[in-house]
């Protein structure tokens, strides 16, 4: 059963004060009850927020086959450009957004950026030119940038490192639900063609944007900030959560200082994680942006293609939850990630080599089943590889930001229908790079852990001295990497 050190309040952890020496024991049943409380009050809401986020960024794929490409004359590479411009401001705004999340309250910052991007999404229904779509997508990327890295970081402030992968998986599974729901929703909204002098694809933007604004408004009242201010927890439960988090952070700093930002920026392991994530997110965005097009090119009409994307994303949702659970259950990141990458590679190999519609469609399902779980597992892995709150927040933002720049790549590789050999081949190359870097990270983390264990044994370093190393981040001899 978990043993935790009692602390008077979460604010103490923010100022790095040493907790009281008095300890109390929490039974396994009580511990699970507290975690279930966190899950019930946090996960459904943040998952809904991300569902809307992914729905708003990926609905351009549904709008394309619903008539947007014809009405706005998106010939040549124009659709690819419209898709790509979103990712440039999206990537560069993520680190500043995560710092703002730490400086301001999550219940203020996250709903505010949601209102902003929901407004942009709604107004996209008025875009009827190529230039107008480009401008709207740039502002959509800028305003939406903070949600995914922000919520990933936010969850790390509530859950221990060993518990966070399945929670990120539940949160990220909203992306797959958005893909499935988006196909059904787009199929229905298309029938509003001509109402209010708008095309069906314009109504897709309008209605989905309005839904985001409505939910964002409620988020101001329903989103919780930190364990210390969580009204749904009792006083003892709050102290228990705070103490577990204090123990899990291994005594490392939680306050803001710019040196922690530089620790993340100058750490070579940050860039290994950025490389892993880039290859994974390029794959996920390729599926999100082009699944309707890929299915349509297999010989189905537009309405059938919208509906046939649903099983692809449902399968991805199931494996995202399954792999996330296994990752936390066995406290393994690298091996589970490698297995998921290999499954996705098999799917893309089938897509690359098979021309029969049924077989190729099965390949698309396998590709999504492998690709979607990788995001949650890798982000949990990246977060656990950073010591201290600010370093973790900056690392996650850098990883997610670089990965989203990869969305520019995703936007330009599916240009050779109907087989899309360039697209499928490029994705296989990126997945191969992520596979190799994952193996490298596993080897390096194991090597570093052995060095730290040997140093602690040689110098007699134990938990009683953790305050000496609280500003060192990953370099603390007491810090351990998750493999």
From TrEMBL:
> What keyword terms does UniProt attach to this protein?
Membrane, Transmembrane, Transmembrane helix, Transport
The UniProt entry's GO CC annotations, sorted and at most eight, read: membrane
Query: GO molecular function terms here?
Result: transmembrane transporter activity
Where in the cell does this protein reside? Membrane
Entries under Gene3D superfamilies matching the protein = MFS general substrate transporter like domains (1.20.1250.20)
Name of protein = Major facilitator superfamily protein
Which residue spans traverse the membrane? 42-60, 80-101, 108-126, 132-156, 168-189, 201-223, 274-295, 307-327, 334-353, 359-381, 393-415, 427-445
**Superkingdom per UniProt:** Eukaryota
Q: How does it sit in the membrane?
A: Multi-pass membrane protein
Provide the species name. Lyophyllum shimeji
Domain Major facilitator superfamily (MFS) profile as annotated: residue spans? 42-450
């Amino acid at each position: 059963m978990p043993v935790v050190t009692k602390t008077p309040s979460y604010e103490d952890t923010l100022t790095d004060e040493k907790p009281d020496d008095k300890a109390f024991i929490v039974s396994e049943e009580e511990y699970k009850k507290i975690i279930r409380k966190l899950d019930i009050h946090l996960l459904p809401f943040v998952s809904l927020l991300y569902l809307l986020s992914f729905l708003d960024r990926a609905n351009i794929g549904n709008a394309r086959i619903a008539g947007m490409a014809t009405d706005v004359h998106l010939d040549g590479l124009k659709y690819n450009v419209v898709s790509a411009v979103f990712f440039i401001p999206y990537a560069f705004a993520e680190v500043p957004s995560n710092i703002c999340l730490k400086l301001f309250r999550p219940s203020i910052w996250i709903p505010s950026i949601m209102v902003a991007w929901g407004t942009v999404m709604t107004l996209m229904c008025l875009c009827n030119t190529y230039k107008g779509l480009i401008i709207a997508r740039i502002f959509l990327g800028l305003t939406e940038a903070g949600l995914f890295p922000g919520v990933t970081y936010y969850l790390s402030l509530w859950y221990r490192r060993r518990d966070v992968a399945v929670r990120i998986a539940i949160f990220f599974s909203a992306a797959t639900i958005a893909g499935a729901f988006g196909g059904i929703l787009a199929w229905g909204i298309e029938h509003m063609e001509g109402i209010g002098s708008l095309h069906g694809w314009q109504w897709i933007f309008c209605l989905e944007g309005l839904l985001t604004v409505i939910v964002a408004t409620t988020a101001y009242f329903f989103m919780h900030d930190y364990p210390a201010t969580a009204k749904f927890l009792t006083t003892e439960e709050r102290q228990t959560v705070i103490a577990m988090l204090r123990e899990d952070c291994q005594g490392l700093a939680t306050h803001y200082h710019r040196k922690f930002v530089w620790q993340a920026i100058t750490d070579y392991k940050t860039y290994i994680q950025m490389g892993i994530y880039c290859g994974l997110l390029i794959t996920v965005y390729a599926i999100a942006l082009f699944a309707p097009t890929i299915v349509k090119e297999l010989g189905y009409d537009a309405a059938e293609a919208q509906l046939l994307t649903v099983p692809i994303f449902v399968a991805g949702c199931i494996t995202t939850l399954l792999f996330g659970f296994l990752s936390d259950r066995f406290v393994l990141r690298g091996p589970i990630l490698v297995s998921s990458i290999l499954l996705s590679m098999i799917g893309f190999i089938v897509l690359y080599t098979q021309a029969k519609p049924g077989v190729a469609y099965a390949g698309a399902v396998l590709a999504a089943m492998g690709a979607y779980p990788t995001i949650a597992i890798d982000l949990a892995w990246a977060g656990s590889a950073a010591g201290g709150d600010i370093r973790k927040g900056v690392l996650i933002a850098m990883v997610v930001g670089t990965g989203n720049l990869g969305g520019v790549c995703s936007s330009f590789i599916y240009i050779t229908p109907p087989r899309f050999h360039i697209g499928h081949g490029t994705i296989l190359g990126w997945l191969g790079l992520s596979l190799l870097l994952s193996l490298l990270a596993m080897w390096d983390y194991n090597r570093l852990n052995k060095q730290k264990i040997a140093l602690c044994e040689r110098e007699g370093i134990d938990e009683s001295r953790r305050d000496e190393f609280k500003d060192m981040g990953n370099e603390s001899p007491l810090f351990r990497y998750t493999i």
